[in-house]
């Protein structure tokens, strides 16, 4: 991103980034081109190169925008301390579903970034918000262990990894046929009438069975 891009209005920045995200989500990074993006954003190709060095530069900027929006929408929870760990996870799964329905292009763009074909991008990304998500889960586990909701046999990091993996796979299943079929195979057990709500409850139940204290009395006393 060039300095000039930061000087234009926030509204115009978001319009350009939104257009780029839509094109990347629809076509994939390698089939998208600057002309497609400029047409979607209604800007001249010359203007594009005043704002960005190339398509990769724009893609990195778009990623940083998406992860910031996603973190602010999904992971900012009110009355955090009044909820159990599993109530927080349930709310996050619902927020993830809502985010996908309302921002499908942003969601699909985010999912596409983490495919093996995009590995060369990862060292160039600002993953500050990704790190904030990691911290969110670890702090949630620590709070749950202090309240006797999570077994203290787990390190906060390992328990957080388990939860993050489940929520990430759930999120990918919303936009990927492959991941949806995998989720259906394991969580729907071939029952066609199950709703997404049923799937969420099965995820919560699985995590409770995995993480809840085996001996609540011992855990509370520890």
Regions with pLDDT < 50 over 5+ consecutive residues? 218-222
Alpha carbon gap, first and last residue: 51 Å
- Helices and strands: which structural class? mainly alpha
SSE string:
HHHHHHHHHHHH
Helical amount: over 70%
- What is the CATH architecture descriptor? Orthogonal Bundle
Total strands: the figure is 0
Report the CATH topology name: Tetracycline Repressor, domain 2
Shape: elongated
Mean pLDDT: 88
CATH homologous superfamily annotation: Tetracycline Repressor, domain 2
Number of domains: 1
Q: How large is the share of residues in beta strands?
A: under 5%
Number of helices: 12
Tell me the Rg in angstroms: 20 Å
- How would a crystallographer describe the biggest sheet? none
Q: What is the CATH level 1 assignment?
A: Mainly Alpha
